[in-house]
Amino acid sequence: LLSTAAELRTKLEKLRPTRHEATEDAGVDAMEIQSSTLPN
């Protein structure tokens, strides 16, 4: 499953612009940081 997911991600990265991919990753990281720092 991991190898298949990696292959799919590689194909998606080739299809999608690198800048857009980086922006998505940064957005996810920011959301994770916000949720982890927010009080429960």
UniProtKB/TrEMBL annotation:
Recorded superkingdom: Eukaryota
Region (Disordered): 18-40
Name of this chain's protein: Uncharacterized protein
